[in-house]
Structures are given as structure tokens and as C-alpha cells.
Amino acid sequence: MKRLPENVRRLLRLRRNVDAQVAEDVDAEIRFHLESRVDELVSQGLDRPAAARRAREEFGDLQSARGALRYESGRTARRTRRKEWMDEVKQDLRYGWRKLRTQPGFAAVAILTLALGVGANTAIFSVVHAVLLRPLPYAEADRLVQVWEVSPDGDDHNVISSGNYMDWGERASSFEVLGAYGWTFGLGIIGEDGEPRHVVATSLTPSAFRLLGVEPLYGRAFTVEEGRPGGSPVAILSHGLWVRQFGADPGVVGRTLSMNETLYAIVGVMPPDFDFPNPNVDLWMPLTFGEEDRPVRRSHQWNVLGRLTEGVSPQQAQVEMDAIAARLAEEHPQYMEGWGVNVLPFRADLVVGVRPLLLVLFGVVVVVLLIACANLANLFLARAMAREREVAVRRAIGAGRWRLIRQFLTESLLVAFLGGALGVVVIAVGLDALVALAPADIPLLNHTRIDGVVVGFAATVTVLATFLFGLVPALRATRTDPASSLRAAHEHAGGVRQARLRAGLLVTEMALSVVLLVGAGLLVRSFWRLQSVDLGFDKERLLTVMIDLPLTAYPNTPEQVQFYHRLLERVGGLPGVVSAAGTTQPPVIGYNNTFSFAIENRPSGDADGREDPVPLRGVTPGFFRTMGISLLRGRVLDERDRAGVPRAIVINESLARRHWSDESPLGKRISFEGPDGERWWEIVGIVRDTRHFGADRPPVPALYVAHAQKTWGWMSWLTVLVRTEGDPLAVAPAFRYALRNLDDRLPIERLTTMDEVYAESNARRRFAASLLGGFAVLALVLGVVGIYGVLSYSVARRTREIGLRMALGAQRRTVAVAFLRDGLTLALVGVVIGLAVALLLSRFLESLVFGIATTDLLTFAGVPVLLTALAALAAYLPARRATRIDPVRALRVE
Amino acid sequence: MDLLKGTLDAMVLSTLSAGPMHGYAVTRRIKDRSDGVLEVEDAALYQALHRMERRGWIASEWGLSENNRRAKYYRLTREGRRRLAQELGTIRRYTEALWKVLEEETA
Questions:
Q1: Could you tell me which of A85, A88, A73 has the C-alpha nearest to residue A22?
Q2: CA-based nearest residue in chain A for residue B57
Q3: Is B64 within 8 Å of B56 (Cβ atoms)?
Q4: pLDDT tens digits, residue range A821-834?
Q5: Claim: this prediction has a pTM higher than 0.80
Q6: Closest CA in chain A for residue B66
Q7: Cβ separation of A68 and B50 shorter than 8 Å?
């Protein structure tokens, strides 16, 4: 039997089934045995046929032997193959590691690039995962829906009235459970140390607790009785409050807590990551509903959560609720006409505001990673080309092409995993920074953590990136024809194709960088625009202190007014204070109470004759001066507007425009509903609009009444605004002292500066702009480094050619210009493509830009200029190097 | 006479300790050295060879025989040598014990 050449055999073995080979070997072995025995018997005198028979007899059961031998050999063969493969991989790894160590510069750049790319991607992904993807920690969270009312003027996230909630609960079969909860409110508690402290509380029905399905750490949830009016006052603590205020004492269940002059029994403590409806909540109280609440239909207050019945979709629930809403409108036309219902999946509704931002961010880091991979591919390609000789030698002595490709890939994987390991460090640090910098109102942000999914993502991205930047160079490098590569004076034939590939990669990098830079430019400009918006008042040096008086101690307007008057007097006299005033609704952070009013002798078109509700603010004398809001006509409210005299009201320009566009509103009267009939107010002044709800929100029509004349006793809160000469926070200790002197059990709900308040409201934009800007800069650096690398390499490879040209008379200048032109052409092509793509994609930033169009000219023009300039710079250095080439040295045989 | 399976392994290993040889040579050596007393079925022998190869006690390699035929050669591995020593020890102890008992009876 002939022996086949080793190469062919190995190649064949790769293709063939192990079993076929094994079967063949077993047959060959048996055949050899039988032939040998036959020969021996023949030499002892038997004739061939007899010998053959004897030999076969001696052997035994041929068939079963064959089977058994194949089985054993099969197992051996497989084991050997595995072992060989493992050995090869180990060899590859060792070799690759050695190679990397001889090129530390390359290794460092590659590993760092990859670490940044993978790290940034994974960090953003873990946020995306926590906010958008990971199942919520509530029972059967995929069946949770939020139910809103839809107001006649189109607000589809309107809160719900008590009566409606109760009727829904009874009539709707789409929901297994329906629960309600209110907004958070502040309470004062006296701490163990006697210090008054402010806690954030929220009330929710026992059914809401059941809906969420989270077991308390200690104690129990609310009982059904506690959800009925007249139940005993109970409270459930958050984990944070339990640790902070009660020292994490497990015996806290059963103790009482005094809040606003009432004793509450603590019945439970929740686990650490329960933060419904937001992470600020310190404790939960039961929300009660009884028959006396059913008639309440005009006042809308509650948020409603539901769990869909098994098998019911949100759309089906919507249909049922539409019908129920229609019936309710028929039953109570004066309140419910024109009102609808909106059923939305809980998670989707929760994150609808941040989804665009997060997806944009994720897209951005993917692009950065692609750019990084392009750079890495170029790097590896250059390196692979430099190892041509090595490859050629190895192939000449018989290494298979796939074996070499595997070698290259293993080296790439080595870089990838080192990069990935470093990337983990980047992720850990980056994630902390990300969560710290991010605006606090991103829902579920505090649930971000590195879990199995995130690690899996990082690993997948690493492997994918490896194939992206490792495979192509590996293929290219091993494609060379061994014979020609070994020739001494060889300039690789694949040069043109390879150069085109590298150029293509570079153009792609440039284009992607342009896209990112345009996006970043738009967001940064938006943010700057926002900073310079005229707010309608002066937010600098304005201390802002939110105070809420307990109704038990200050049950009505006179007591409240007296307290605040005393406070403002004292504060106004403090050193460093220019003036002080108060408002019931400060910008951005205030409770937005809206009231509907009627205009005298001019009923509106609505069923009840009243106008749409607008914000109403109770302000103390000197408010407009302290805030810096200009008066346009008439007068502002001052000391003469107090209890007992005709009530005066000031409106802003928007309201004036809306209702009195062609006449003067001064002297006109409007009314609000009171318990004893309509109460009338006379318009005495018009003031400038303010951007009350945020720098990026348009002004809203609003009303100002004198705090002393407010008729709503329950409006016991006031935010004190203190205009200071210097740093507002320097006055804070004196303020606290003055407050303590008046009432030492009163906590401060919040103390900050107006500047900070508006900074917070811009937080989301700042976040987007800084992240996008940072990534864009990263992409830019990568791109510029890429140009520099490619051109440097090009100069190095073409040294001989350049030397030849110069020897033949080409000017140094011409040579340099040629390279510069090469570099700039690449950059320009990339820029043009990038601009086109950016133009297409910029519409996705619609919700995030402010004050400029998504096709803002300055950005779209500025970015190409910047990029081209940098590209020219990056090309300049290699070009200059080209001019320094000494023709004599270059032409010498290498 | 029938053989215990363990002893077949020991015989093969012992034969190979003399040097690498192909399967046929192993079978002949065993049959010859026992002066024909021990009849080993060839199939059983080959199964033993392949089984021990799987276990790593012997290793194989394809080569050319004396008359230029393709044959599978087996040799002892280090693990195989260790195993051989173990088996020899076990068999010696077993036969010594067996003799002791038998001698007693026949004495």
C-alpha cells in the first residue's frame, strides 16, 4: 500500500469524517495480520486457500472484532485530535504573546483602543439594559400597565379623579388588580436626635402594593382595612430611611413614628432596591378610598397602576376602558364630558422620555467602536504585511493556510482579551462616572449594575470586534504566493488592492467621525443656547428654600401668613441679603397647582363656563422685585393687598394675550370657585412671562395672587427666595437659625440656589452633550491617528519609490505635496460621505436639540472645516518625512 | 486454557516492553513464548491492543513492515510501563496466594 504525502493526507483528514479514516485503518490492520499469518502458514507448507481458511479461523469473529476495534480506535482518534488542536492553540498563544512583547508600542495602542471601545460600549449598554431592557423587579411586570385620563384639551397623561378610580375598579374586567398612588409629598419627622427632618412620602392603596408584589423585608404590606377611610395610621419604611433613621434595627416593626403631630405605627420595612415610584421615597402610607370619595370627579389627583388579566392585551384593555369612559361621560356630563382614558404598558410609559437619548448614546458608542475597529484593522493589516516574509517561509515549509490564519486570529484574540480585560476596568470606572453624571430623573438609573448579561455583552463585543479587525488582515496576509514573497527584491503584488482596502477603511472612519461630530456639535450648541436663554427673571444669587407648614399647627391662611411674614422680616434683615420674598410655586421645582377661573361677563365655550386651568402662585410683597420680573402695565402686588381688602390679581403677558388680546385686562375681574360661591379678584397688573418650567419650555399663562389674600387654606407651603449680595449659600446657616427661632420643629424641605435648580433642569441636555461630545472627540482622535498611521506606513513602504523619483529629478516639494494630497483626498471623501449620512440621521436628534435646526448650518459647515484642518495636520508630518528621504540611502538594496 | 482478561493486558504490555512491534508480531510472540499452551484468540488480542491504546498505556504509529507493507506499530508509554509493573505485582501476589492454598490442600 502506497504512503501518501503528508500534506495531502493532513488536508484530507481535515475534510474526512474521523470515522471513515478509523474504519479504513482498522481494516488495514486486520488485513495485514491475516496476510502475515497466511504467509507464515504457506511457508510452513500449507497451500494458500487452506492457509487463508486457517488464518481466518484463528482470528475469531471478524465482524464483531471489526466493530469493537472501530469503536475503540474512534475514541482514541478523537481524543488525539482534540489534544493536537489544544497543543496548536497553546503554541499559537505562546507565539502570539512573544510577538506582542517584541512590539510593545503596537500592543499598547491596540489594547488601549480596544479597551476604550469595548469599555464605552459596555458601560452605555449596561445603562440601556437597566433602563430599557431588564425586566422590572415587580410581580409579572410584563402585565403591568399605567392608566391615565385624557383631558378634553388633549393631555393624555392626566391624573385620575377618585370617583373614576373607584368606578374603574368595579367595572373593568381587563384588570386583575387596580391600584392607585399619589405624588410624593413632604413630611416632617422628629429624628432620634430631636432634629426635625424632612422625609419624602407617598400614599398608595393596598392593592397597589399587591400589584407590585414585592415582599417587605420585615413586617407586612398594608391590609385591606387600612385602605378604607378611618383605618389606623400606619407607615412602611424604605430601606434607606430604616438604616438612616432607625439604625437598621429589625425591631422597628411595631414602633411608632410621629409625623406632623400624628402617631403612625410602623408595620413594615421594604428591601433595599424597592423604589416605587422613585428612589427619593422614604416611606409609604395607605391611600384610602371610601364611598364619600366617589362623588369627587372634578379634582384629578391619582396615578393608577393595573395588572392586566391573564390573556388580555393593553389594546383590549384600552377598548374596554374607552367604553367605560364613554359611559361615565354620560353619567356625569358636567365633569366627564370630553374625557377619555389612556392605557399604556408601564415600562414603555416610564421610559418614553429617555428612550431616544439612550438609543442615540448607544448608537454613538457603536460607531466609536467601529472606528476603533477600523483603526485596529489598519494597524493589524500593516503588521501582517510586515510579516510577509515570515508567512512565506512558514508556508514554504508546509504550514497550511488555515493554520496560519488561525495563528493570526489567535494573536488578534490575545489583543482582544487583553483589551477586554482592561476594558472591564474602564467599564467599572466609567459606569460609576456615568451614573453620577447622569441626570437624576432618568428612571431606573440606580438599577444599573454589572450582571451576567452585561458581561456576556462585553465578551460578545470583544469576540465580534476581533473578527472584524482580525479576519481580514489574516486573510490578506496569508494570500501571498510563497515563492514570490521570498524573492529578495520583492515589493508585494497585492499592494494596490491592499492600499485600496486601507483607504476604504480610512474613508469610513472619517465619515463616521463626521457623523459623531455633527451630532455632538448640535447638542453642544443646543446646550449653549439653553444657557443664554432669557428666563424673564434673574436667577443668579437667589437662595431658594422650600418650607411646608403642618396643617395641624397652622390650619389656615391667617396663621400661615403670619408665620411667613415674621420669617421674611427676619431673613430680609440678615447681612448679605438684598431682599427676600416668598412664592407658593417656585420655578421648576414647585408643585404645579392649576385652577380654572371664570371671566366676568364672558363665559367660556366650555360646558361649565370656566377657562382652562392655569398655574396660580401666591406671592408675598416684594416678590416681583426680588425675582427681577419686570412689570409691563399696572402695578405689582404689595403690602396693601392683605386680608379684608378687595382681592387683587396680577397676570402674565401670555395670559393677557390669550384672553384679552384686543383690550386691556386691567380692571377686569375673574373669579374662582369657593365653598361659599364665586370669589372675585380684580386684575391690577401685567408682568413679563418667565420660563417657569425650564429654560427649554415655553412660557405658560399664569396668575399671581397676594399670599395674604389666598383663599386656599390647604396651600400651606411657601418657597422663600432670598436675593443675596454674594454667594447665596453663605446666607443659609443664618436662614436656618432664623427659622429655628420661629419654630424649631419645622424641617426644611429643600435648600438650594435658583441657579442650581435650573442647572438640574438642564441636566439631561448637559449629559447628552457632554457624553456625545466626549465620544466625538474620541472618534476624532482615532480618525486623525488613523490618517497619520496610514500615511506614515505608506511613506515607509514606498521609500524606494520615492528615492527613485527624487534621484530622477523630482522636487522634494512635489513629493510632499503628493502625500499631502493623498491624505486630504481621503479625508475629504470621508467628510462628504459623512455629511450626507449626518444629514440623514440628524432628524433622530430632534427631541434633543434646542434653539437650532437639526440641519444647523454652523455645525454642518464647522465640522468639515475642523476635520479637514486636522487631517491636513496629520498628513503634514509624514509628508515632511517623505521630503527628508535621502535618495542614496533609499536606493541601496535593503 | 482460558485466560483472565487482566492477564491478557499484562501479557501484551510485557511483550511490548521488549520494543515497538506490530499487532501480528505481538500475537505470535505471545503464542510462541507460552509454547502453545495459552491460546489467545486474535480478535481478543487486537481488542486488548486498541483498548489499551485508548487508555493511553500504549501508543501507535503507522509504518512499513519488514516486507514493505503498511502496518500499525505499537509501543509502550510511560503510563503503560507503570501499569505493567502494577499488573505484574498483582499477578505475582495472586499466584503466590493461589499456590499457598493449593499446596495446603494437596499436602
A1: A73
A2: A76
A3: no
A4: 887 888 899 999 99
A5: no
A6: A36
A7: yes
